[in-house]
Amino acid sequence: MKTMQNNYVGIDVSGEWLDTHIEPLAQARRFANNTQGLEALVQWLGAHAIDLVAMEATGGLERICAQYLRARKYEVRVFNPSRIAGFRKALGTQAKTDAVDAKVIALFALSMPNTACIEPDPALRDMKDLGARHTQLTQMIAAEKNRMTRVHHFFAKRSIDRVIDALLAERKALAREMRKIVDDVENLKPAA
Q: Confidence band (pLDDT; 50, 70, 90) for 129?
């Protein structure tokens, strides 16, 4: 049976776990950070009237959880970790565990539900990911070219050439995907 009280959820996201806390109910649970864990989280949250789900930006680890919950019609906000750290300090909370962090995030959401949050534009986020990968591929190509100058055996040179060709093809495909994102954004702009 759903409770009628409005509740605020804090989720501390790590690579393995989703430590979750609901305020003001003071209920906490830990879920695996995988598809089964996300589904169990949704089932657990479904028993409560949830106003807001909050989490810290954790270098991208929070994205899948946030997208999963948004797809299930939860309002999700991702906050700057320094805001949460300042709030933790203001509360006088010294302990820093995943469960305590989840509670602090829930209390932050309950106390300041209208605080600005980090919500990067999806196209910008995708370009950042693709740009980082482009840089990695460029570095790998440079490393292979440097190796080429230090080998003399014909087979080793052919092997390096094949790797460079594959990396160049991958980089070209990545550039096409980046171009599609830019074109989509351009098409969304209102006519002047």
A: confident
